[in-house]
């Protein structure tokens, strides 16, 4: 019995999947920020875990790796620098958020950063078509 596999042209490429993972990571980061603000501020719970610096460092490292591979690879293929520039700006905001104290400034910088990184991944996906 043979199975029909999709052709190579119809399967999502690794770069495309990495862009999708990047968008998902950005969404999880934004959700983490909002949940932290609500849970810690309103209920006073989970601060020891949700505000842990290692979560932010690991998140930034994952964002850097995924963006470097997906958007860097995309830029080499489609020769458009806008996704790369938008991603660099977003990652810069996210990095800046690590050096400010926890609070609204960190929250705002992080959300702007993950928003820009998501837009960069979307631009990269569009440029590949």
UniProtKB/TrEMBL annotation:
One matching Pfam family: MerC
Keywords of the record: Membrane, Transmembrane, Transmembrane helix
Transmembrane segments annotated in the record for this chain: 21-43, 55-74, 81-101, 107-125
Native source organism of the sequence: Erythrobacter fulvus
Xref: InterPro entries: Mercury-R_MerC
Domain of life where this protein originates: Bacteria
Protein name as it appears in the record: MerC domain-containing protein
């Amino acid at each position: 019995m043979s199975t029909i596999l999709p052709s190579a042209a119809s399967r999502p490429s690794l770069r495309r999947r990495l862009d999708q993972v990047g968008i998902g990571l950005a969404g999880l980061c934004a959700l983490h920020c909002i949940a932290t603000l609500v849970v810690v501020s309103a209920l006073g719970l989970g601060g020891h875990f949700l505000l842990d610096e290692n979560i932010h460092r690991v998140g930034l490292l994952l964002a850097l790796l995924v963006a470097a591979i997906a958007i860097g690879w995309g830029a080499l293929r489609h020769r458009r620098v806008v996704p790369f520039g938008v991603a660099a700006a977003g990652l810069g905001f996210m990095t800046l958020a690590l050096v400010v104290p926890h609070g609204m400034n960190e929250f705002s910088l992080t959300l702007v950063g993950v928003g820009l990184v998501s837009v960069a991944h979307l631009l990269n996906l569009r440029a590949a078509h």
